[in-house]
């Protein structure tokens, strides 16, 4: 009678059901993620998680990439505890792991199969021997090229080309009268745009951002060789306005048949071979990113990964979710619902041993080879004090990388010479690093 008086029309049966539900979901975790297709798909499949784990409720905060980075960085730096699971990249993991801002992903359970993670991807997410974030999908970069134009030029693309071959082929395939350019490369300024490409490229020329004493190295012959080769190649065989072209612009050019070769993210392979999106889908080949005979290739390494902030008050529930979302069972769930072609790539060895996936993704083997070529712990020919292939895993890199990208983009636009660009980069980075106390 008391319950009826207090709750009015609520029946005892409804009260019991509500109480049961409340006790069943006794832990709520908040997940901050990026609004890309793979993450949206994950949200749509989480009924499978909640059915298996009725004691864990999920709350989603889905944001555009730049907003996500800002919100998550602010929260974790201040220990705000707003999120229990965060989506971060390979750049953030070493920095935040060293600062003990992340919970090590130990004791993830046998079903997680940590040994199945691709070593190159896991290496970039490991600090002091501990996995600090689990990869949701990973990528490297490789050469995508028009097989018909290569044949017409009388050339054959090696599986592992040199930069000199790329230059020879680019010049041979260029037909400016018909708006066909031998090579399309990133020129748009930004630490994640042109500097992702140029930093990875510089590794293959023996260049470094810093020596072991954190002294900037843009005044070296290796950087001069890198930048001059890039500028000469783009002037000889690149499209007009290349200083404004990033990933999306070059993707559009390639899909429209205007690029003989494009060196960029392996994730683009599914776009350029999709006949619904690409005019050249039936004549695309793949090769490793070029090298210069020094033991390093010009390819990068990246992964979007899930991690747990140290400020989370539900780390065990967060681990349970991450083990589900990034474990091998999730790949099978996506394949069952969306087809193997839509499985998140680049994280697990077993995926690249799966005949169903290999048949659905003809670029899979070259993607795997490209990922395996990258070594974020030892990215350069000579030793360096930093981790990262196409970036330097220090907090200052976002600022200095973007400014150097602007300088190099100006050189590509013809506003300054390569020598002036390198002098400006050396002076700017030296000043910034001195101010930061390196």
Structural class, by secondary structure, is: alpha/beta
Distance between the terminal alpha carbons, to the nearest Å? 73 Å
* CATH domain fold name of the largest domain: D-Maltodextrin-Binding Protein, domain 2
SS field, number of helical segments: 19
Helix content class: 40-55%
> How would you name the CATH homologous superfamily of the largest domain?
Periplasmic binding protein-like II
Mean pLDDT reading: 92
Radius of gyration: 24 Å
What is the strand tally?
Answer: 10
> Which regions contain 5 or more consecutive residues with pLDDT less than 50?
1-24
Topology as a string of helices (H) and strands (E): HHEHHEHEHHEEEHHEHHHEHEEHHHHHH
Q: Any idea what the CATH architecture of the largest domain is?
A: 3-Layer(aba) Sandwich
Strand content range: 5-15%
Largest sheet: 8 strands, mixed
Query: How would the global form be characterised?
Result: globular
In total, how many domains does the architecture comprise? 2
Tell me the name of the CATH class of the largest domain.
Alpha Beta
Spell out the key features of this protein.
two-stranded antiparallel ribbon; eight-stranded mixed β-sheet; disordered N terminus; alpha/beta; single chain; D-Maltodextrin-Binding Protein, domain 2; globular; 438 residues
Written description of the protein model:
α18 packs antiparallel against α19. This protein has 2 domains: 2-138 and 302-360, 3-Layer(aba) Sandwich (D-Maltodextrin-Binding Protein, domain 2), CATH 3.40.190; 140-301 and 385-435, Periplasmic binding protein-like II (D-Maltodextrin-Binding Protein, domain 2), CATH 3.40.190. It contains 19 helices and 10 strands. The strands form 2 sheets. Strands 1, 2, 3, 6, 7, 8, 9 and 10 form an 8-stranded mixed sheet that branches. The chain has a two-stranded antiparallel sheet with strand order 4-5. It is globular, with a radius of gyration of 24 Å. With 438 residues, the protein is α/β, with parallel strands linked by helices. The longest helix has 18 residues, at 418-435. 46% of the residues are buried.
């Amino acid at each position: 009678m008391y319950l009826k008086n207090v709750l009015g029309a609520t029946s005892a049966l409804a009260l019991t059901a509500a109480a049961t539900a409340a006790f069943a979901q006794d832990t709520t975790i908040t997940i901050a993620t990026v609004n890309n297709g793979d993450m949206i798909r994950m949200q749509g499949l989480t009924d499978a998680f909640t059915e298996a784990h009725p004691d864990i409720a999920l709350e989603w905060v889905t944001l555009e990439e730049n907003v996500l980075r800002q919100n998550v960085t602010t929260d974790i730096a201040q220990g705000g505890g707003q999120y229990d699971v965060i989506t971060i990249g390979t750049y953030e993991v070493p920095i935040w792991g060293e600062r003990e801002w992340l919970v090590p992903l130990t004791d993830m359970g046998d079903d997680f199969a940590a040994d199945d993670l691709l070593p190159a991807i896991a290496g970039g997410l490991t600090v002091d021997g501990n996995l600090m974030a689990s990869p949701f999908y990973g990528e490297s970069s490789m050469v995508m090229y028009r097989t018909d134009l290569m044949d017409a030029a009388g050339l054959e693309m090696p599986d592992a080309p040199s930069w000199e071959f790329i230059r020879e082929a680019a010049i041979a395939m260029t037909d400016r009268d018909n708006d066909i350019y031998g090579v399309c490369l990133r020129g748009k300024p930004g630490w994640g745009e042109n500097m992702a490409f140029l930093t990875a490229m510089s590794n293959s020329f023996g260049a470094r951002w810093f020596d072991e004493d954190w002294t900037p190295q843009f005044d070296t012959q290796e950087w001069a060789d890198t930048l001059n080769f890039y500028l000469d190649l783009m002037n000889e065989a690149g499209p007009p306005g290349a200083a404004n072209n990033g990933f999306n612009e070059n993707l559009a050019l390639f899909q429209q048949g205007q690029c003989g070769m494009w060196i960029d993210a392996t994730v683009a392979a599914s776009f350029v071979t999709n006949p619904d999106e690409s005019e050249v889908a039936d004549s695309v080949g793949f090769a490793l990113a070029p090298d210069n005979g020094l033991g390093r290739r010009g390819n990068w390494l990246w992964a979007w990964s899930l991690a747990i902030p140290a400020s989370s008050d539900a780390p065990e529930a967060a681990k349970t979710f991450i083990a589900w979302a990034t474990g091998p069972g999730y790949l099978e769930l996506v394949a069952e619902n969306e087809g193997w072609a839509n499985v998140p790539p680049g994280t697990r060895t077993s995926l690249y041993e799966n005949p169903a996936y290999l048949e659905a993704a003809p670029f899979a083997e070259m993607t795997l080879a490209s990922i395996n070529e990258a070594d974020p712990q030892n990215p350069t020919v000579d030793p360096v004090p930093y981790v990262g292939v196409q970036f330097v895993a220090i907090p200052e890199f976002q600022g200095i990388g973007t400014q150097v990208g602007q300088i190099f983009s100006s050189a590509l636009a013809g506003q300054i010479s390569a020598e002036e660009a390198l002098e400006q980069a050396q002076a700017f980075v030296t000043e910034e690093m001195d101010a930061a106390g390196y």
